[in-house]
Amino acid sequence: MCGIVGALLKSGSVTEGLIDGLSVLEYRGYDSAGVAIVHDGGVSVRKKRGRLANLEEALGDGAFLGALAGIGHTRWATHGEPSDANAHPHTGRSGKLAVVHNGIIENYIELKRELLNEGESFSSETDTEVLTRYIDRLWVEEGGDEAALVRAIRGVLPRVTGYYALAVLAQTPTGPVLLAIRKGPPLVVGVTEDGGYLSSDQLGVLPYTRNVVFLEDSDIALIGPGRLDVVDASGQPVTREARAIEWDPSDSGKGDYPHHMLKEIHEQPDVIARTAFDRIDLGAGDVRFEGGAFDDDFCRSIERIQILACGTALHAGQIASYLIEGLAGIPVDFDFASEFRYRNPRLVHGTVALAITQSGETADTLAATRLARELGARTAAICNVAGSTQVRESEATILTHAGPEIGVASTKAFTAQVVAATLLAIRLARGRGVLHEHKAREILEELRMIRPKVESLLTDAAIARCREVAQQHAGKRGFLFLGRGVNFPVALEGALKLKEIAYVHAEGYAAGEMKHGPIALIDTDMAILVINAEGKVAEKTRANIEQVKARGGVTISVGSDAASHAIAASSIPVPATSEWLSPILNSIPLQLVAYHIAEIHGCDIDKPRNLAKSVTVE
Ligand code: F6R
Whose CA is nearest to atom 16 of ligand 1? Predict the structure, then answer.
């Protein structure tokens, strides 16, 4: 949420790179965009409400070319409506300091009042401007040079309640200074001989270097060409090691696809293979994680698993709960991270808190996991970003190899999470000795063979079928997604995809629950997608299709259960596989149906209204 970038170069011009960086980070927020550069002995700012394109147009006069240092911001509004005035960067009265911010300053009203009493004035409604003015005043009082700026920031931060990733740009008597400060939201730094770069995520730094530093909480870093000087909370200089990033900067492009989401849907065969295949030991009927993670002793020591996640990642977590209980026999609880952290949870001895998160930076998931740790749980994560806070804070991690996910609606990261959860369930079951080698091998062989089945769901003909269903039903008043067992969370995920990108009301429901209320919604203006795979609950789910039909509902069956297709009004067939693996396949047509309905409605598919990826604030 909110993307920030900054750079201080040895030579050249900073603005073009800032705009490139913002275009990569725009998925984090798109309410406004702005840049500040050092210019004519001070800082100059351009900022515009709306998409980055508006800012680019405003910069068309070339006045911002040639500066050596600058910062930029793409906003997801928290305090104050999206407007030019509320857009970042914000500046101090000195005219020599600008700040961009990702996060929330919770006590900004109290600080604002104090500053107003001291004669300060404000031109926006934001919390960030309050912080900026505060830092600027202290900086000027302290002498206005580089050392004074570090002192000023160290003086202000203890007064601030909240979460922040900040970039501070200042023009000092000895030249421009760029600082990165972090408490909560992520901040990544890269340094080369040519420049120092900072960004909310590694994608903003990767064009310059693959060796990136993930700042720790409370770090204050001075950045420049060949320079990274970090002090920790106590003001002591610290070394933060760089880590090499595998992602290719070009992975964050759209390729030939009209949308990131469609590209990412099409990447799923590769993503599933990358996440699963090297970890499968077919000979032993087992799973091997890197570094021997989840070894037999660890698996046997677990009494209970508490899954913590948000949104789509929680749906993957719900699927994980069926897999882990069903295969490994370990009791599993799952909860919205945002509920867990405030409900006074009780954890039994031997609990492992398993966080599932694409970004590894979701504020609620991080806080819930920290709370679980305080309550005595060990922590593990399924995560897509090596080096993220969630990974750094977890005792064991299974990385999903989905690559950068830019579309705000998660697709490939979700299927990768489900694959990782499947591998984990099998490892836990094998480590505890509760799943026979040949049974495990059967599922793993199926997983090893899943790639062509995934590809078959992405052929022109398969996509055309999903588009047809979308065309038939795009005008419906509402959508109900029904599923049972391991495919119940798939129904929840199908409904979420449709809501978030097509702005259509959709509900996911456990098929057996339909009779306990939602059946009253059913009429001919409601489309009911029933997810049903061959397996032990197929017959029960078929009965639900009959019940919906009997009440005039329009049914679309999705899955491998041919008998469901025979009775539903229309169908999207999916290849047969193990019931345990069916969520991986069944999710894909639902992603495509949502995509095409959103397309028919003319929605902004990669940047749905009000949303942003990576929810780094509560
Ligand atoms: C929906 C979606 C979100 C995320 C959620 C958690 O398509 O992407 O619901 O799943 O915000 O994000 P991560 O996985 O980064 O923790």
Answer: 357
- How far does the centroid of ligand 1 lie from the alpha carbon of residue 613, in Å? 7
Tokens 């060949």 label which residue? 226
Same domain for 199 and 275, yes or no, is: no
Q: Note the pTM of the prediction, 2 decimals.
A: 0.92
Residues lining ligand 1, judged by CB closer than 6 Å? 310-313, 357-359, 362, 365, 409-410, 500, 614-615
User: Is residue 393 domain-shared with residue 536, that is, in the same domain?
Assistant: no
Reported as a single tens digit per residue, the pLDDT across 473-489 is: 999 999 999 999 999 99
Q: Of 310, 418, 501, 605, which is best to mutate to test ligand 1, by the most ligand atoms within 8 angstroms of its C-beta?
A: 310
Nearest ligand 1 atom to the CA of 390 is: 16
The CA 602 to ligand 1 mean position distance, Å, reads: 23
Q: Which of 281, 268, 602, 601 is nearest to 450 (CA)?
A: 268
Q: Which of 48, 183, 453, 613 is labelled catalytic?
A: 613
Q: Write phi, then psi, for 36 (nearest 5 degrees).
A: -130, 140
Decide which of 425, 448, 471 is a domain's last residue: 448
Q: What is the DSSP string of 533-590?
A: -SSTTHHHHHHHHHHHHHTT-EEEEEES-HHHHHHSSEEEE-----GGGHHHHHHHHH
Which of 308, 357, 606, 618 most suits a substitution to test ligand 1, by most atoms within 8 Å of the C-beta? 357
> From the first residue on, what is the mean pLDDT of each consecutive set of 10 residues in the chain (618 residues)?
95 97 91 95 96 95 95 91 95 97 95 96 95 98 96 95 96 97 95 97 94 95 97 92 87 91 98 97 97 96 98 98 98 98 96 97 96 98 95 96 95 98 98 98 97 98 98 96 98 98 96 92 93 96 94 95 97 98 98 98 92 79
b/e 325-345 (16+ beta carbons within 10 angstroms → b): ebbbebebbbbbbbebbeeeb
- Residue the block writes with tokens 């009779």: 515
- Residue having the nearest C-alpha atom to atom 9 of ligand 1: 311
Answer yes or no: do 22 and 53 share one domain: yes
Whether 603 is catalytic is: no
Count of Cβ atoms closer than 10 Å to residue 468 Cβ: 14
Nearest CA to ligand 1 atom 10: 312
476 is catalytic: no
Kind of pairing, strands 526-531 and 211-214?
unpaired
Q: How far is the CA of 307 from the centre of ligand 1 (A)?
A: 15
Residue 216: domain span: 3-251
CA dihedral (522, 524, 527, 532) positive or negative: positive
How far is it, in rounded angstroms, from Cα 416 to Cα 426?
15
> Based on the structure, what is the number of domains in the chain?
3
| Closest residue by CA, ligand 1 atom 8 | 410
